[in-house]
Design goal:
Length: 155
């Protein structure tokens, strides 16, 4: 008898041992919805971090949700290297705590509904400041979303 050949699933992910998990996060979305489709069309779970205040921010955020991927805000923050411009919608060291909250809320609102969390874009100067990063965490708690910090060390 003829046994049909079964093609392997390229996205077949083996079961994790001891509760291990892996998450794929694509940063820096917001520039082009067309280019973003390369990722949102993949048949696997992904999180897409969208930058605020770019030409296609809203379209990209909408595409992420429409295509069933997890949407988070890629929140720009000042790096320790002050010559690095984190881009529009950034948290900078001269901001008051109220201004930081206002910027994060505005950026989250720009992405629309469906935002599950946020992470930092650049940001070492801010994430290493326990008061300022704590202020970002306050907004995350207020909005019931998570904050995934890419670099966190306190001096």
């Amino acid at each position: 008898s003829h046994v049909p050949k079964v093609e392997p699933n390229p996205y077949s992910i083996p079961k994790a041992s001891a509760g291990a998990a892996i998450a794929f996060i694509i940063d820096d979305a917001g520039h082009s919805e067309e280019k973003l489709k390369r990722y949102t069309s993949l048949a696997m779970p992904l999180t897409i971090a969208v930058l605020p205040d770019l030409e296609e921010t809203e379209q990209c955020a909408s595409r992420v949700v429409k295509d069933g991927k997890e949407l988070i805000l890629h929140q720009p923050m000042q790096a320790e290297n002050l010559s690095v411009n984190p881009g529009p919608g950034a948290i900078t060291p001269g901001m008051s705590l109220g201004e930081i909250k206002s910027v994060v809320r505005k950026n989250l609102e720009q992405l629309g509904t469906g935002v599950k969390g946020l992470n930092n874009h650049e940001g070492s100067l801010i994430t290493e400041d326990i008061i300022r990063v704590g202020t970002v965490l306050d907004v995350a708690v207020e909005k019931n979303i998570y904050f995934l910090v890419n670099n966190l060390t306190y001096k």
